[in-house]
Amino acid sequence: MAVTNQPARLVVLISGGGSNLQSFIDACGGDNGTGRLDAKIAAVISNKPDAKGLERASQAGILNIMVDHRAFDSREEFDANLGDVIESFDPDLVILAGFMRILTTDFVNRFIGKLINIHPSLLPAYPGLHTHQRALDAGDAEAGATVHFVTPELDGGPAILQAKVPILADDNATSLAARVLTVEHKIYPAVAQWFCSGRLQMTNGQAILDNEILGQTGRAFSQDNER
């Protein structure tokens, strides 16, 4: 991404409550924002009309759009229409924030290199659903979240930043999910800022930060690399 004097343009895709969306709203500059993310959310798009995240966007004065996947005859038709809507905003970065759709290869390739997601596990462990219960069932000592570039392989794109939380003796899937969500809200805007400032890119299927290729699990989160 070319660095300019203008804030980067983000499009955020949601399907539900939008708590990660809220972390981006809070991180963006402005009268009520922290300013740690030099970007503007150009639009929030949901595939579900009752997604609470649409209300969050409206309350923040952000354009919000509903593209109902049920109105299309096929996944391919929906993804093509969604892609057209996204492109109309000329985004620098497209953010999946709880967007509960498996995306087609054509859609992913249309935005490859500027499409990121956050997954509630320490990838490559536990791609897909029910990540917290799977970690508990396996007797893992730690869980966490991973921000990664999106590729056609489900949850298989190169990892960028990973944060860990301990699994406690009395944890269940709900309590573990809540603790993981707190670190999601820290690491996701941090990665977006890396991208928007020109420090991060995907090249030849690899995540590159500050001219260094990141490993299989990306960079480990600490307060020092939150910025």
Explain what you see.
By secondary structure, this protein is α/β, with parallel strands linked by helices. The chain folds into two domains: 7-111, Rossmann fold, CATH 3.40.50.170; 120-227, Formyl transferase, N-terminal domain (Rossmann fold), CATH 3.40.50. The chain is 30% helix and 24% strand. The chain has six helices and eleven strands. The protein has helices at 19-27, 52-59, 75-87, 105-110, 131-137, 173-196, and strands at residues 8-14, 39-46, 64-66, 93-96, 115-119, 142-149, 159-166, 200-203, 206-209, 212-213, 219-220. The protein has an eight-stranded mixed beta sheet, covered by helices on one side. It has a three-stranded antiparallel beta sheet with strand order 8-9-10. Helix 1 (19-27) runs parallel beside helix 6.
Question: Tags for this entry?
Answer:
eight-stranded mixed beta sheet; alpha/beta; globular; 227 residues; three-stranded antiparallel beta sheet; 11 strands; 30% helix
* Highest-level CATH class of the largest domain: Alpha Beta
N-to-C SSE string, H for helix and E for strand: EHEHEHEHEHEEHEEEE
Low-confidence stretches: none
- Please tell me the overall pLDDT: 94
The name of the CATH architecture of the largest domain is 3-Layer(aba) Sandwich
Query: Mind describing the biggest β-sheet?
Result: 8 strands, mixed
Strand content: 15-25%
Strand elements, count: 11
**Percentage of residues assigned to helices:** 25-40%
Number of helices: 6
What's the CATH H-level superfamily name of the largest domain?
Formyl transferase, N-terminal domain
Q: What number of structural domains do the residues give? A: 2
